[in-house]
Each structure stands twice: as C-alpha cells, then as structure tokens.
Specification:
Layout: E1 11-12, H1 15-25, E2 32-46, E3 54-69, E4 79-81, H2 82-85, E5 100-101
Antiparallel strand pairs: 1-5, 2-3, 2-4
Length: 102
C-alpha cells in the first residue's frame, strides 16, 4: 500500500527475514536460530453473523521469538545461521533487502 506520493505505508517480511531481524536486534553472532510463535487457545459458544450459537475456538498470538537449535539437515526458511548472516567480523555476508512494498 502506498500513499499518493509513493511512500510505503506498510511492509511485509517473510519468516526468514523476521527471524534475521530478531537475531540482529539481539546481537547474536553464532548458532542456528529458529523462529517460533506462542499461541493461547480458549473455547466458547459463539454466534457469527446470523448463525446459531456454536462451540468455537479462539486462538491468540501471544509471542514471537527465536530458539537456538542444532544445525538443520535441510534448508528451513524459519532458521537463521547467525554466524553466516549476522557475522561479528564486520564483513557483510548477507544483507536484508529493503522491506517490500505491499
């Protein structure tokens, strides 16, 4: 979404980019880190629109974080190799592209 002057009003990131953003924000420079989500669930009787009351589930996103994991056997878009993608050597080995306009 852009305003009339072309300035983006929203950005979209994929799972890998989000994981890398957290790794960089926390200053992590080694290990493999997996993006994870925490959810809270509840049940209730709800009526949506003109439907009758029915048993329902409510899911709430309660947290987004990262967890250190062993080296994955296969590429996984939710895992970042901090040593490769957030090197502390000062040599840039990977750079996030500018966030995409949506």
């Amino acid at each position: 979404m852009s305003s009339n002057n072309g300035t983006p009003q929203a950005y979209d990131v994929d799972y890998h980019e989000l994981c890398l953003m957290i790794v960089k924000a926390k200053g992590i420079h080694e290990g493999y880190w997996r993006l994870n989500f925490g959810f809270l669930f509840s049940a209730s009787d709800l009526a949506l629109g003109n439907t009758p009351v029915r048993p329902s589930v409510i899911a709430q996103l309660s947290a987004v974080g990262i967890t250190r994991v062993a080296q994955p056997p296969n590429p996984d878009p939710m895992i970042v190799d901090a040593a490769l993608e957030n090197s502390s050597s000062g040599i840039i080995t990977s750079v996030l592209d500018m966030p995409r306009k949506i």
